[in-house]
Amino acid sequence: MTTDSRLGRVAVGETGFERAAVWCAVGFAVSYVAFDAVALGGELAGVTPDAFGVAAALAALTAVGTAAFAAVGAGALPAVVLAYGPFAAAALRTIGPPPYVVPLSDPLPFAVAVAEPLGVALAAAVAVGVVGYVVGRIVAGFGSDGGDEESTGTTAGGDTDAAD
């Protein structure tokens, strides 16, 4: 295996960007609405939930999901893409502009107020995505069998792989 193909395998992985993009979008939507759901649950229970506590829980869940995604064959870049959605939603809800309000009369300050949390989310997604990739590949036992998983013809459960 050449250095270029190994670098490409680490960057992209066996699982393409499609799955990462879908989970990025789903993670954004679910995480954005999670703040409202937790606030509603807090009102019903008579407590005031902390937005940063919700963001921390979402970050922990995203880190576990990113490591699991890498463990099943995703590369470092898809892991970063997957992590970006939930982090973008959490950053927008904690340090971004008020939700569900777009001032159409003066959009420039709003655009600046949105760009900052999205930049923070990108930095967090890169950090968590790369660490999640490393942890996921360690958990998956990357390289422990010499990279001959395709030559055995069996899956992890011992079943014969009929997709070849």
Jot down its keywords.
single chain, 164 residues, mainly alpha
Question: What can you tell me about this protein's structure?
Answer:
By secondary structure, this protein is mainly alpha-helical. Helices cover 72% and strands 0% of the residues. It has six helices and no strands. Helix 4 (76-95) packs across helix 5 (107-140). The two termini are 21 Å apart.
Strand content: under 5%
**Helix percent band:** over 70%
Largest sheet: none
Shape, per Cα inertia axes: globular
Task: Sketch the topology as an H/E string, one letter per element.
Answer: HHHHHH
Poorly predicted runs are 146-155
**First-to-last CA distance:** 21 Å
Indicate the structural class. Answer: mainly alpha
Radius of gyration: 19 Å
Please provide a brief summary of the model:
This protein is mainly α.
Topology:
Elements: H1 3-12, H2 17-45, H3 51-71, H4 76-95, H5 107-140, H6 149-152
